[in-house]
């Protein structure tokens, strides 16, 4: 393994942790119909804003020892778990596929799956706001990356949608 490969793997891991941090926002706010952008992160117990340096993925939770800096209320283990899971999935995508356009598609797919999974665990529903645009973007990006396999991507998308429809019914 070369130094460049190790560096790109580390970058994939860090990118995954950062995306995982945003996915925590999506998981909490999207089902509630709240803005994903504003206001910034706050303690659910005391309402005080989370300082930027406590919001660093994985590291912030560890520094705070899983407690709010202001009120001492516990911060769920789920935050670093989602960040770490997404980081590992991004690293695995890079390790399996290397540097290519399809790797980014795989990473986006993993990110959508993480958000969908945890929203489903909490609310027993799969949000169309993630699934429908995600399916369209992944299909378009996959065809753009490998136009010769367009029918396979379309068939896989229809098969996946049919499976989820059957589960939903």
Task: Report on this structure.
The protein is an all-alpha fold. Helix content is 66%, strand content 0%. The protein is built from 6 helices and no strands. Helix 1 packs parallel to helix 4. The termini are far apart.
Task: Describe the secondary structure blueprint for this structure.
Blueprint: H1 3-29, H2 59-63, H3 78-97, H4 101-123, H5 128-145, H6 150-168
Number of strands: 0
**Rg result:** 18 Å
In terms of quaternary structure, the protein is: single chain
Estimate the helix proportion, in percent: 55-70%
- Morphology: flat
> Ends: how far apart?
48 Å
Helix tally equals: 6
Overall mean pLDDT = 93
* Helix-strand makeup class: mainly alpha
Uncertain regions: pLDDT < 50 for 5+ in a row? none
Main beta sheet strand tally, sense and closure? none
Query: What is the string of SSEs from the N terminus onward?
Result: HHHHHH
Instruction: Assess the beta-strand content as a share of residues.
Output: under 5%
């Amino acid at each position: 393994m070369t130094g460049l490969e190790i560096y790109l793997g580390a970058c994939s891991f860090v990118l995954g942790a950062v995306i995982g941090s945003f996915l925590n926002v999506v998981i909490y706010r999207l089902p509630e119909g709240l803005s994903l952008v504003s206001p910034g992160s706050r303690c659910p117990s005391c309402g005080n804003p989370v300082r930027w340096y406590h919001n660093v993925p994985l590291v912030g939770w560890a520094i705070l020892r899983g407690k709010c800096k202001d009120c001492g209320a516990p911060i769920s283990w789920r935050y670093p778990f989602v960040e770490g899971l997404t980081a590992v999935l991004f690293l695995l995508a890079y390790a399996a596929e290397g540097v290519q356009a399809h790797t980014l598609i795989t990473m986006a797919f993993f990110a959508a799956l993480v958000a969908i999974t945890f929203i489903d665990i909490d609310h027993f529903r799969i949000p169309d706001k993630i699934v429908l645009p995600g399916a369209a973007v992944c299909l378009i990006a996959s065809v753009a990356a490998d136009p010769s396999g367009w029918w396979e991507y379309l068939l896989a998308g229809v098969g996946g949608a049919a499976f989820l429809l059957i589960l939903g019914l």
